[in-house]
Write a structure and sequence with these properties.
heterodimer; A: two-stranded antiparallel ribbon; 69% helix; B: alpha+beta; 6-stranded mixed β-sheet; elongated
Chain lengths: 663, 309
């Protein structure tokens, strides 16, 4: 293979990307060397097994991917803003929408969700760590390496262009030759293994690592949402893994699973990928429901309404989510009976979801609501998700779906539920738990600017797309001619939609600015309880010490920190005598990072169909696994003296600040 | 969030709803402006689903806005505060109950319409069969009764049920003529039926709806609905004036390319069947409905029927 095929050439935007990648890399290397940070980076971050740091790394990576996916979105909207645009060529546009979808779901939403899992769950259940800290690090690095492998495709080898779910036969080698589609397969495959491991990790963490006094029915709803989401991961991700392996066999080894010649069947892929893909959207939205449950209760200063039916509805969603996948292809011509069953199952999902919205609203009833940044995003969520949910029910009516399918109506619907539900939810979570992880709040004023830009941008961008769907505009077209644009009414609405996309982009810039600004000027919090919280994570200092809880908390029911504070105020609280014990902690390890490096080598090799390189990478993976299995010195104890020292320092810091504010 | 802003948001949504609804009589919203019984039934279901959803959404939004204002923590707000109130069986029964009833009603309408659409829209008129093949990146229509073929446009008689038989000689696509009715996938190796009908003469916009690569955006076509007489005249005209589609001609046509509207006075015998078979139909005879008269007779129950030959 010569270099002109290896490096993508011919497009000025790609050259721009090349230059900026090189410059950023040089800048990072220079910074790390000049300030002698290599050792720090290795010891404190790359080899860490601390769930809080892993959470922060997930968060950083997903914000980066949100930027990347957002730029892709804006490029697409620019191309469609006017008829007959020559801004992007067809192939380039196809690559961009494939990348946009893949990145937003798998490399933005998933890691953002895992960031929240890692940052919050152990703290909410009074645990010192996740169940498998080493595996947790492996999961992160597998996700990261998978994302990087997928991202370099734009400048090396060429990108996938068959859509984010890559239906065969279009994604088979006959119609998509070259490495692009392989990048898609291997990027997702590697990170998907990490996602499955995270799901397992959090199921075990929640079931086995809770502080001994916490019963299942005392768990905060966010933790419940993580549990139901993880159970769905456990069922869904193996299907993805197997489907990708089958497609790999088709592409690399001449198989016929999904090609009709040879007796395969492309519809088998469509079924398999949606058996993963539909639970997947509930996987990402359930934790957002958990976030809203925490946020609305906290800022209404009230117990969550209908705890039992909240839990039941989440479990119901994660179960019924497995019986809805066919609604993605009602138009495949299956019999009426099949369509009716899946239409009704899909509509049924709306029932528990609707119940949750009622319960949140009635949590506000007879509360005392303070409107903070996290609550703002909940306020934005309610109308957005109600309308998005309604268009979802409209789509579920199978014969009506014959008219919406693959049109802009569908595009508007899923962006409305995914942005309104998932993105708004995760942002609410980000603003809510940020002070816990970092010890300061994010600036309110910049946050409000960002919020309103997002809100207005969102409606300006996606409402016209519902109308475009009714005008017969289908998804994934890279251009439309002037006659259609004006006669059929597509052009003005597309232009408006593009304006909205830009507003959301500016909103994101405000958020980046908000984070950078707040690092220096944000309101510091040393109480550990920035929002006057109700659950356990607010009972320890911010940021928490490496072991989280010096003494495992004693829980007497739901919202136990809230009631403890009440008792403290009334003077009825009985201080337990403090007796520290040595804390058992896992040691850092470089193996997860190194193993992922070998996965990268393997993935890269198979992508270019250099089998020797793929095999070398896989051997490396096996060797690192071996190396780990012979490591016996993997844990250590934090001594009582050190715990005392840390706790004293934290208490002093808190005391000093109380003094400062008192003066 | 202030009262004003909430109100502004709500009125914005309401306004938007009105804009969309007012589009019903605006010919630009072609999905909402059907010209045949299939599209009509689908529009009917769309309207029912909008009304049923609105029954829930509008009150919920109103309650939400009211609570957000009423229970805001500000000075002088003497609304009752009950931090421990977290349960009411009556309320929960109400809001589990209402959505269940609504989904049940919508489910019944959905099931009815789904079943209805598998049958010809009118019973007493002899249907016309049009075979549709999606290719990279064009549409071919073959008329087994008239033995003529067209590319990127179709002619159909108005007032007559048309059984479109769909397949693909390229990646999967979807055949969609919004004003006549909903779409269905065209898939390599399978051939499936879709009933559509135009009640009025006119030219209708059609397009491919499922992405098939580089030239996908250009896969738009026209469906011209004309009177039965004009339809017969048109077919005769094509028979007289257009070139024949040979096997070699077809192979050339099937290669990835963009072409304009074309007509052919004839096409190789069994062309459509051979396209289905070569793409894998030979493995899946049970998934094939070739639109021939033999399988037409028992077509009424389902979209797909065993092809008996």
């Amino acid at each position: 293979m010569n270099t002109s095929h290896f490096f993508v050439t011919g497009d000025p935007m790609i050259y721009g990307a090349d230059v900026s990648i090189v410059l950023v890399t040089i800048a990072i290397i220079f910074y790390l060397s000049y300030f002698k940070k290599w050792g720090w980076l290795w010891r404190e971050w790359i080899t860490t097994v601390d769930h809080k740091r892993i959470g922060i790394m997930y968060l950083l990576a997903s914000l980066l991917m949100l930027f990347r996916g957002g730029v892709d979105a804006i490029l697409m909207r620019l191309q469609l803003a006017v008829p007959n645009s020559h801004f992007l060529a067809s192939e380039h546009y196809n690559e961009i929408f494939t990348t946009h979808g893949t990145i937003m779901i798998l490399f933005m939403a998933m890691p953002f969700m895992f960031a929240l899992f890692n940052m919050v769950v152990p703290l909410q259940i009074g645990a010192r760590d996740v169940a498998y800290p080493f595996l947790n690090a492996v999961s992160f690095w597998l996700f990261f390496i998978g994302a990087m492998l997928f991202n370099i495709s734009f400048v090396i080898g060429g990108s996938a262009s068959a859509g984010w779910l890559s239906y065969p036969p279009l994604s088979e080698s006959q119609f998509s030759p070259g490495p692009g589609q392989n990048f898609w397969i291997w990027g997702i495959q590697i990170s998907g293994i990490g996602s499955l491991a995270t799901g397992i990790n959090f199921i075990v963490t929640i079931l086995k690592m809770r502080t001994p006094s916490m019963r299942l029915r005392d768990m905060p709803l966010f933790t419940w949402s993580v549990l139901s989401s993880s159970i769905a991961i456990l069922g869904a991700f193996p299907i993805l893994t197997v489907s990708l392996v089958m497609l790999t066999i088709d592409r690399l080894f001449g198989g016929h699973f999904f090609t009709m010649d040879g007796g395969g069947n492309p519809m088998m892929w469509v079924n398999l990928i949606w058996m993963w893909g539909h639970p997947e959207v509930y996987i990402v939205v359930l934790p957002a429901f958990g976030v809203f449950s925490e946020v609305v209760a906290n800022f209404s200063k009230k117990r969550i309404f209908g705890y039992g039916s909240m839990v039941f509805s989440m479990i119901a969603i994660s179960v019924v989510s497995y019986f809805t996948w066919v609604h993605h292809f009602f138009t495949m011509g299956a019999g009426a009976d099949v369509n009716i069953v899946f239409a009704i199952c899909t509509m049924i999902i709306a029932i528990p979801t609707g119940v949750k919205i009622f319960n949140w609203i009635f949590t506000m009833y007879r509360g005392r609501i303070t409107v903070t940044q996290p609550l703002l995003w909940f306020y934005a969520f309610v109308p957005t998700f109600l309308v998005g949910g309604a268009t979802g029910v409209m789509l579920a009516a199978a014969p009506a779906d014959y008219q919406y399918h693959n049109s802009y109506f569908l595009i508007a619907h899923f962006h409305q539920v995914l942005i309104g539900g998932v993105v708004f939810g995760y942002l609410a979570g980000l603003y809510y738990w940020w002070p816990k992880l970092f010890g300061f709040k994010l600036n309110e004023r910049l946050g409000k600017w960002a919020f309103w830009l997002w809100q207005i941008g969102f409606y300006v961008c996606f409402m016209p797309q519902y109308a475009l769907g009714f005008m017969g505009m289908t998804r994934r077209i890279y251009t439309y001619n002037a006659t259609m644009g004006w006669d059929m009414g597509w052009a003005p609405l597309n232009f408006i939609s593009t304006v909205g996309a830009f507003l959301m982009g500016i909103g994101f810039i405000f958020q980046a600015w908000q984070i950078i600004y707040s690092i220096k000027h944000g309101e510091r919090d040393v109480t550990g309880d920035a929002w006057d919280g109700r659950t356990l994570e607010w009972s320890i200092p911010s940021p928490p010490p490496v072991y989280n809880f010096a003494i495992l908390p004693d829980v007497k029911g739901r919202d136990s920190w809230w009631y403890q504070k009440q008792e403290m105020k009334n003077g009825t609280y009985q201080e337990q005598p403090v007796k520290y014990e040595p804390i058992h902690m896992p040691k850092n390890s470089g193996i997860p990072f190194i193993m992922s490096g070998f996965w990268f080598v393997a993935g890269f090799g198979f992508t270019f169909e250099w089998m020797w390189m793929g095999v070398v990478g896989l051997i490396g993976v096996v060797l690192t696994l071996f190396a780990r299995s012979f490591q016996y010195d993997t844990d250590y104890y934090i001594s009582v003296e050190e715990i005392e020292r840390t706790e004293k320092a934290l208490a002093q810091k808190r005391y000093a600040s109380v003094q400062r504010t008192a003066n | 969030m202030s009262k004003g802003i909430q109100f502004a948001k709500f009125s914005f949504l309401a306004l938007l709803g009105m804009v969309l609804l007012s589009g019903c009589d605006n010919s630009k919203y072609i999905v909402l402006d059907p010209k045949g019984p299939v599209g009509q039934q689908e529009l009917h279901l769309i309207i029912i689903s909008v009304i049923l959803c609105a029954i829930v959404i509008i009150p919920v939004l109103a309650i939400f806005v009211y609570f957000a204002i009423r229970y805001r923590d500000k000075q002088g707000n003497n609304a009752p505060y009950q931090p421990e109130w977290d349960d009411s069986k009556v309320l929960e029964v109400v809001w589990w109950g209402i959505p269940i009833v609504i989904i049940a009603v919508l489910g019944v309408f959905t099931a009815k319409t789904t079943l209805a659409l598998t049958k010809p829209p009118v019973k007493d008129v002899k249907p016309v069969v049009v075979q549709v093949t999606s290719m990279d990146w064009k549409w071919m229509f073959t008329y087994p009764d008239k033995k003529v073929a067209t590319v990127n446009y179709a002619e159909i008689p108005a007032g007559v049920p048309v059984q479109f038989i769909l397949t693909s000689d390229a990646p999967m696509n979807s055949f969609w003529v919004p004003q006549l009715g909903g779409q269905e996938y065209t898939m390599p190796g399978m051939s499936m039926g879709l009933w559509l009908q135009a009640d009025k003469t006119g030219t209708y916009f059609g397009s491919g709806a499922n992405f098939t690569g580089k030239g996908f955006a250009h896969m738009q076509f026209k469906v011209k609905a004309v009177t039965q007489d004009e339809f017969n005249k048109w077919a005769d005209g094509v028979k007289k004036n257009s070139p024949a589609l040979t096997k070699a001609g077809y192979d050339k046509l099937a290669k990835p390319s963009l072409v304009k509207e074309l007509s052919y006075s004839s096409y190789p015998n069994g062309l459509f069947e051979s396209i289905v078979d070569k793409n894998g139909g030979k493995y899946y005879h049970h998934m094939s409905n070739m639109g021939d008269s033999k399988s037409m007779s028992d077509m009424s129950g389902m979209d797909m029927k065993k092809h008996d030959n």
